[in-house]
Design goal:
The structure holds two protein chains of two kinds.
Chain A lengths: L2 E3 L4 E5 L4 E3 L2 E3 L5 E8 L6 E7 L6 E3 L2 E6 L4 E6 L8 E9 L9 E2 L3 E6 L1
Parallel strand pairs in A: 2-12
Antiparallel strand pairs in A: 1-4, 3-9, 5-6, 5-10, 7-8, 8-9, 10-11, 10-12
Chain B lengths: L2 E5 L2 E4 L5 E8 L5 E7 L5 E9 L2 E4 L5 E7 L2 E6 L8 E8 L8 E2 L3 E5 L1
Parallel strand pairs in B: 2-11
Antiparallel strand pairs in B: 1-3, 3-8, 4-5, 4-9, 5-6, 7-8, 9-10, 9-11
Classes of the chains: A mainly beta, B mainly beta.
Chain lengths: 117, 113
């Protein structure tokens, strides 16, 4: 069965520090998709990125970057020069391509990031 | 562009009262629809999903039910609320066919007293 583990439950940094949020996944499927979501204090989950299992290229979007490594089953998320507005709960999620007619996501437990001024 | 609405935004209900939360999606057809619950400080729990009108799959047995009377409408209901039903309820949609991300609504914060 699929599983997503976010071992860091809470991280606290000072503004302008870099921070990496870890995500480790388990799946038997050879085709799958990985996602990151941000949940700010308002509560709505905001989609950040989707990666498929055949694309191991790292992705950079502004201060955000993602490191996908199939060899270690990890999909880590780094925020460079963190800002107070980055304070939120971040969720990593996995979707298997097969036997998943409902396109269900398996979420990790989330990491609460607190960026202090 | 697609948008997803949920209402009400907040709700305070006594134990034993009924519940009806509504979710609607605009700008897409035949979406997959999902209901999640998030207890305070906890992760996301998938409650129901639907791949079409009248098609509901339940992930967790409980005193909640879901219905999809129209293509872009998803309703979460209960006949009698329990204290343990308190939480943040999120509706989400995704394009059919898999491999896509889900997009979430603003959520409903339910407090059962």
């Amino acid at each position: 069965a699929q599983k997503v583990t976010q071992a860091q439950t809470e991280i606290s940094v000072v503004e302008k520090e870099d921070v990496t949020l870890d995500c480790v996944y388990e799946t038997r499927d050879t085709t799958y998709y990985l996602f990151w979501y941000k949940q700010p204090p308002s509560g709505e989950l905001v989609f950040l990125i989707r990666r498929n299992s055949f694309d191991e290229q790292n992705e950079i979007s502004g201060r955000y970057s993602w490191n996908f490594q199939k060899s270690t089953s990890s999909f880590n998320f780094t925020i460079t020069a963190s800002q107070v507005v980055d304070s939120a709960v971040y969720f990593c999620a996995l979707s298997e391509a097969h036997n998943n007619a409902g396109n269900m996501l398996t979420f990790g437990g989330g990491t609460r990031l607190m960026v202090k001024p | 562009s697609q948008t997803i609405h949920q209402w009400p935004a907040t709700l305070v209900q006594p134990v034993g009262s009924p519940l009806s939360l509504e979710c609607t999606v605009e700008g897409t057809s035949n979406p997959n629809l999902y209901w999640y619950r998030q207890a305070a400080g906890r992760g996301l729990q998938l409650l129901f999903y639907s791949v079409g009108i009248g098609q509901i799959s339940s992930e967790v047995p409980q005193n909640l039910s879901a219905s999809r009377p129209q293509d872009r409408q998803f309703i979460l209901s209960s006949k009698k609320l329990l204290l343990s039903d308190s939480g943040f309820y999120l509706c989400a949609w995704a394009p059919p066919g898999g491999r896509y991300e889900q997009y979430f609504g603003p959520g409903t914060r339910l407090t059962v007293t």
